[in-house]
Design goal:
This protein is an alpha+beta fold and about 300 residues long. It has three domains: about 60 residues, no CATH class; about 140 residues, Trna Endonuclease, Chain: A, domain 1 (3-Layer(aba) Sandwich), CATH 3.40.1350; about 70 residues, no CATH class. The protein is about 40% helix and about 10% strand. The protein is built from eleven helices and six strands. Strands 1-2-3-4-5-6 form a six-stranded mixed beta sheet, sandwiched between helices. Strand 4 and strand 5 form a beta hairpin. Helix 8 runs antiparallel to helix 10. It is elongated.
């Protein structure tokens, strides 16, 4: 605590430094250390007594803080606050207690517009939002350290799926599922700056839900608003489209200055566009087989 906090502005202006609260504080520190009895505040003026009591209360509170204790968990810090919903209660980490289904469940609550599913082929959880695609890899460790083995796994994921832009390494042994999100360029060779620090700054390791939320905030694509053309919202009638195209082609060819059999054939096909529409429908049917010789003969007979 600075000296200025112990003196009023008037006392600082007059240069006074014999504040009676000073003696009380020193005596109280001796009391906390077990070297003296607790000092009394009865001899202080009301204003000094109030100021001294606030300082002594702070000393008592600080005395109860153990600087060697481990830091509290994120869940305990956010308990009973509006941010508590960001960290759903997870079962305590234990061997076999966290799996890909757990990771998928936590991530499903980050953004309802995203798609989340487990990819058994790569043993990852895929998180897709518009054209953003990320994979989350569960590793049996207490921290998401990028060891040589983990680096090889992450590199293989990037090589296998070119659409994957981020990979999250999730520590299964951590109570908060601590996650390190990295990009493909983070795995490449780095250039060391003169001060010895790598030029690549990785994202901080965060609890899984917060790591996914931070990823969305930083790199999620933004698409402008759009609407569908309601004129084309009905299911596509492929035979009708084929018939219309055939009609336009036949009419255009029949209007040309062909002579002889070619002219007569095109004119004979006017109004026969359904023949071509039926052929397209047969070809597009699942598992259908079409004898082109038969179909060609049928079209020729219609044009005769």
């Amino acid at each position: 605590m600075s000296d200025d906090a112990l003196f009023s502005a008037e006392e600082l202006d007059t240069g006074r430094r014999d504040d009676p609260v000073d003696a009380v504080i020193l005596a109280f520190v001796d009391h906390l250390e077990g070297a003296a009895p607790r000092p009394t505040l009865d001899h202080l003026e009301p204003d000094d007594r109030q100021r001294a009591q606030a300082i002594l209360d702070g000393l008592v509170t600080a005395r109860g803080i153990n600087p060697h204790l481990t830091r509290p968990s994120i869940e305990s810090l956010l308990a009973d606050t509006p941010l508590a919903r960001l960290l759903p209660a997870l079962e305590a980490a234990r061997p076999g207690g966290v799996d890909l289904a757990t990771v998928a469940r936590v991530m499903a609550g980050v953004d309802r517009r995203a798609r989340v599913h487990v990819d058994d082929g790569t043993s990852t959880v895929v998180y897709a939002y518009l054209d953003l695609r990320a994979r989350f890899l569960l590793v049996p460790a207490d921290t998401p350290a990028i060891t040589d083995a983990v680096r090889a796994q992450v590199g293989a994921l990037f090589d296998r799926d070119a659409d994957t832009s981020r990979v999250g390494v999730v520590a299964a042994g951590s109570h908060e599922l601590t996650t390190q999100v990295i990009a493909a360029e983070d795995l490449g060779d780095t250039i060391t700056t003169p001060n010895g620090e790598p030029h690549v700054r990785w994202q901080p390791a965060l609890p899984l839900r917060l790591a996914a939320q931070r990823m969305l905030e930083q790199i999620a694509p933004e698409w402008p608003a759009f609407d569908f053309d309601h004129a084309y919202s009905e299911p596509l009638d492929l035979p009708a489209v084929a018939a219309e195209i055939a009609r336009l082609v036949i009419e255009r060819e029949a209007a040309r200055s062909y002579r002889g059999e070619k002219r007569r054939a095109y004119r004979a096909l006017i109004g026969q566009e359904r023949i071509f529409a039926d052929l397209v429908a047969k070809v597009s049917a699942r598992g259908a087989t079409v004898d082109l010789a038969v179909e060609t003969s049928r079209i020729g007979q219609a044009a005769a």
